[in-house]
Amino acid sequence: MDAHPSRPQRRDVPPGQLLIHGAWVDAAAGEQMAVSDPTTEAQITTVQKAGARDAERAIDAASVAFEEGPWGRLGHEDRAKILFRMADLLDERADDFAIREAMDMGMPYTDFRSIIMPHCSGLFRFFAGQAMAHMDGGYRTSYEPHIRILTRREPLGVVAAITPWNFPLALTCSKVAPALAAGNTVIHKPASDTPLTALALAQVALDAGVPAGVYNLITGPGGVIGDALVRSKKVDKIAFTGSTAVGMNLIRNGADTIKHQTMELGGKSPNIIFADADLDAALQAAFWGIFWNKGEVCVAGSRILVQRSIYDEFVEKFAALAKDAVLGDPLDPATQLGPIATRAEYDKILMYVQAGVDSSARLVAGGGAPKIDGKGLFIEATVFADATNDLKISREEIFGPVVPVIPFEDEDDAIRLANDTDYGLASGIQTSDLGKALRLADRIKAGTVWLNTWHKYHPNAPFGGYKASGYGREQGAEALENYTQHKTVWANLGGQ
Ligand code: NAP
């Protein structure tokens, strides 16, 4: 498979351990979990299968580091210096991170290097700057002239970041960077299927000089160690990205300890394509909107709404693009769609393909699950035309390279269809009429609206959902709010 000498190669990854209080350790019960490569279907390595006792050790380490350690008392500039070092180390080790993500979850190496890695290091730099600029408070006056009000921004305490398998590194950095910048201590629990970049990021934290106990990593089943984090009194905040079903559980289970929570959950995002759009650009936005990272993207443009007058032409050209999509090894620079990250997801997506075939919609591209060199969890870029918004494939999050294309008549019809979903994560409008674009952007119930584009991200741009897609924001100055709390100090100056 790795025949081309200049292309990145698979590499051996040593077995992973838990990082607790600055030391790499084994799980108390001595159990491991296998990590496998969806392209070769071979085992890559093992990681520790932590249990409740390990979670307690990590919680104690993070709690003691917060209460007694130097981290929260460091000047903002000193914390920022460490975050800048983490950003530099991420960039220096970009190749290793990209190969790990390609092997672990099938993300194309080139996408990771060109898009994900700069975003991840950018998040650390951005929040280092935010800590210096926005962690201080204010000095205010009151009704009474001798009374002054001092406001002070403080960290929350112990933050547990529970992350999914689809953008393992990016969705960890978007939590860890603001959490550390604000002076919190962190426990990271990555998805069991994709722990490899989490191990490398924890090593970056150690090498950058994050003090012992401030950054902890535990790998193991969410239902055990994730649950222990959510229920612990000593964990102050859960920063969660994952499915809406698990998110709802976490909200319930965190209620007894009044947990601060941010919830980045699922989506079924509408991409609205008007007849006046630049058709070639709209086709590209629709193609990458759904098929980037093989559709394993929470903000994928997973419902394509097309104005009736261009519907047939759009479907014909879009199906042709999908049929030409290049499936392959994510380490091959020519690959557009790598393999599906896990066997369970692969089976689930194929179930949705069958639901589409069994529905009133028309399969116009894909639907197959080819092997490459006899192996791999590949699914073709799959398009169902003449779909309606009530179909299973239009309502449920498929989380794969499968998309329904639905016709609409006018602006009101487009908005009605776009908002007719439980979710509200992202959306897009492709049109040459800026007034219409901005008018409709106001009416869409979603946290992100992309106008004449898709998949744009920046550390400065708040990101998060409406409705069942969750609450709280990652990225942007707004994110710091989710990792801090405000204290108000009243001072009597006397001399009234
Ligand atoms: P998931 O099954 O909800 O798992 C997410 C994380 O939660 C994993 O680390 C998992 O651990 C852990 N977990 C599972 N059960 C738990 C429990 N009872 N208590 C505490 N933690 C628990 O989601 P996924 O399948 O990994 O990710 C795909 C989902 O994430 C999709 O719905 C997608 O839309 C969503 N997503 C949202 C965003 C966003 O920003 N809104 C971004 C990306 C993905 P284990 O792996 O050990 O089970």
Automatic annotation (TrEMBL):
The active site consists of 264
Checking InterPro entries in the record gives: Ald_DH/histidinol_DH (IPR016161), Ald_DH_C (IPR016163), Ald_DH_CS_CYS (IPR016160), Ald_DH_CS_GLU (IPR029510), Ald_DH_N (IPR016162), Aldehyde_DH_dom (IPR015590)
Q: Does the keyword Lipid biosynthesis apply?
A: no
Keywords attached to this entry: Oxidoreductase
**Protein name per its UniProtKB record:** Aldehyde dehydrogenase family protein
What range(s) does the Aldehyde dehydrogenase domain occupy? Answer: 24-489
Q: Which organism is it from?
A: Mycolicibacterium hodleri
Tell me its family: Belongs to the aldehyde dehydrogenase family.
GO MF, one term, reads: oxidoreductase activity, acting on the aldehyde or oxo group of donors, NAD or NADP as acceptor
